[in-house]
Design brief:
The strands form 5 sheets. Strands 13-14-15-18-19-20-21-22 form an 8-stranded parallel β-barrel, surrounded by 5 helices. The two termini are 44 Å apart. A hairpin with a 2-residue loop joins strand 8 and strand 9. Among the domains are: 36 residues; 139 residues, Chitobiase/beta-hexosaminidase domain 2-like (Chitobiase, domain 2). By secondary structure, the protein is α/β, with parallel strands linked by helices. The chain is elongated and about 85 Å long. The protein contains 18 helices and 22 strands. Helix 2 packs parallel to helix 3, helix 4 packs parallel to helix 6 and helix 8 packs across helix 11. Bound molecules: 2-acetamido-2-deoxy-beta-D-glucopyranose (NAG). The site of 2-acetamido-2-deoxy-beta-D-glucopyranose (NAG) has 7 residues, from loops.
């Protein structure tokens, strides 16, 4: 038998009688394929119930379809699922481009992923009560994905895409599988800081893509802070024209913000905007005169400014205007109001602030002044029908904060934050845990292991108290981070926290068992164009190709 060159690049053979044949290549190839299949490490984060099987089906991109189930409450035209089907087709078949038709020896039996959803929420936004539950069952020629909401269907599509694998010849396979899945915590967030460094919109969109791969569902946008004010406000345009690093190039216009919100929505991600005050507001002062407190040296102003001035009625007028705008621009029902790290020295130096304290009967207690300020801000957002999230500091001096406020725990060692979780939940307040996930801090070695072993409900308290932990947040503060290093610093390290927040606690108790699956997931991220850093020695079948 002789190998002949062929015109259409398919392999042809000449048999002993000289006849040219196109043999049935499928059978012998399958035998070779079986022996060199890559081991499949599974899905990240680990589904709640996962029944794998060694029964495998070959998938062909030319005969693969996503479709809507007949009983589904949503049908073609649903923006969230229509666009997800397009995205996930490319994610399922990463090197297929219809231009050249990929490999030709296809089995060509159609495979359909049929998606059914109970509620039509296609044009809405995901919210805190949105169900992300889904059931996925893969069998011969067919997968059914059932979910209560389109947001759950998105999570299921992500899982399906991770079940598909390729052999050494590039053929695609999926195994028979049954999955029932739902998140352990309702709030699974990543914080990006766009004040210390400006992050281009593209970088934010790419981060949202990667968040969806790890099933994160909240983007906490720490959009402004001391160094810069990049949010371009409709009502107060001077805030960014004077407070941004550059008034034209280093800002987020209203259309940029809409783009981020829409990109996130299509991936089932909520946007939690943070406008942190009264501290962390130096950049606000440039575009809003009289907002910040003038600090004094003896009896004269020193020329420097401190936190927002809580003694002036004009401050609250301005905040009403700003938060009215922010409430209408950002659709989520939560707003983050900050409230952390307020330095009292400037307030203390200012005679007008001191006089105000006297008038209000606060004596010399500046925590009372801070509580007064935060109460006013929380009331503004409540009147706009928004729920507030604040940093834990606010609870330290203001235990009577409205009961629906969420406290975000960011300080201290495990012993310290557990104590805080215990104390705040005892008061019946909901909490969000961030302290163990400040992954802008880096160290030599596999520090993802620390993120992975965090136990958010492991503190002293009743079951009722533990239910008050709404979830967790990975924080990527921006002092040393911009678009050059954000992605490798974030991924796959943030994915460790993602599994802790999504998956069952007992099934994910072993870091060593998680390791190969996370390594495999990191390779998937590379394959999807996310420049995720390596966890340790090893290789990916498809190494990062650069730009
Ligand atoms: C899928 O099936 C193949 C072939 O039987 C097997 O080698 C592989 O381990 C299976 N993968 C999973 C995740 O079960």
């Amino acid at each position: 038998m002789q190998l002949l060159p062929s015109s259409d690049s398919e392999v042809m053979y000449m048999d002993s009688s000289g006849r040219v044949t196109r043999p049935n290549v499928i059978f012998p190839l399958l035998i070779i394929l079986q022996s060199c299949l890559y081991t499949v490490e599974g899905v990240w984060p680990l589904p709640q119930t996962f029944i794998p099987s060694s029964e495998q089906y070959r998938l062909s991109p030319q005969a693969f379809y996503f479709g809507y189930g007949r009983q589904s409450a949503v049908q073609p035209g649903c923006s969230v699922l229509d666009s997800a089907f397009k995205r996930y087709f490319s994610l399922v078949f990463p090197d297929f481009t219809s231009a050249y038709g990929a490999l030709r020896f296809s089995v060509d039996k159609p495979f359909t992923v049929e998606v059914s959803v109970d509620h039509d929420d296609c044009e809405g936004y995901p919210n805190e009560d949105s169900s992300e539950r889904y059931n996925l069952s893969v069998s011969t020629g067919h997968a059914s994905l059932n979910a209560e909401t389109v947001w759950g269907a998105l999570r299921g599509l992500e899982t399906f895409s991770q079940l598909v694998y390729q052999d050494d010849y590039g053929s695609y396979f999926v195994n028979k599988t049954v999955i029932e899945d739902f998140p352990r915590f309702q709030f699974r967030a990543i914080l990006l800081d766009t004040s210390r460094h400006y992050l281009p919109v593209q970088t934010i969109l790419k981060t949202l893509d990667a968040m969806a791969y790890s099933k994160f569902n909240v983007f906490h946008w720490h959009i402004v802070d001391d160094p810069s004010f990049p949010y371009q406000s409709r009502s107060f345009p001077d805030l960014s024209s004077k407070g941004a690093f550059h008034p034209m190039t280093h800002i987020y216009t209203q259309s940029d913000v809409r783009r981020v919100i829409s990109h996130a929505r299509l991936r089932g991600i909520r946007i939690l905007p943070e406008f942190d005050s009264p501290g962390h507001t130096k950049s606000w002062g440039k575009g809003q005169p009289d907002l910040l407190t003038p600090c004094y040296k003896g009896s004269v102003p020193s020329g420097t400014f401190g936190p927002v001035n809580p003694a002036l009625p004009s401050t609250y007028q301005f905040m009403k205007g700003l938060f009215k705008e922010v409430s209408s621009v950002f659709p989520d029902s939560y707003i983050h109001l900050g409230g952390d790290e307020v330095d009292f020295s400037c307030w203390r130096s200012n005679p007008d602030v001191r006089a105000f304290m006297q008038k209000m009967g606060f004596g010399g207690d500046f925590t009372k002044l801070e509580a007064y300020y935060m109460e006013n801000i929380v009331n503004i957002t409540s009147s706009l029908n928004k729920t507030s999230i604040v940093w834990q500091d606010v609870f330290d001096y203001h235990e009577k904060i409205p009961k629906d406020t969420v406290l975000q725990i960011w300080k201290g060692t495990p012993a310290k934050y557990k104590e805080e979780l215990s104390r705040i939940t005892k008061a019946g307040m909901r909490v969000l845990l961030a302290a163990p996930w400040y992954i802008n801090h880096i160290s030599y070695g596999q520090d993802w292991r620390n993120s992975y072993t965090v136990q958010p409900q492991n503190f002293s308290g009743t079951d009722e108290q533990k239910k008050l932990v709404i979830g967790g947040e990975v924080c990527m503060w921006g002092e040393y981070v911009d678009a050059t290093n954000l992605t490798p610093r974030l991924w796959p390290r943030a994915s460790a926290a993602a599994e802790r927040l999504w998956s069952d606690e007992k099934q994910t108790s072993s870091v060593d068992k998680a390791f190969p699956r996370l390594q495999d997931f990191r390779c998937k991220l590379l394959r999807r164009g996310i420049q995720a850093e390596p966890l340790y020695v090893g290789h990916c079948k498809h190494e990062y190709q650069g730009i």
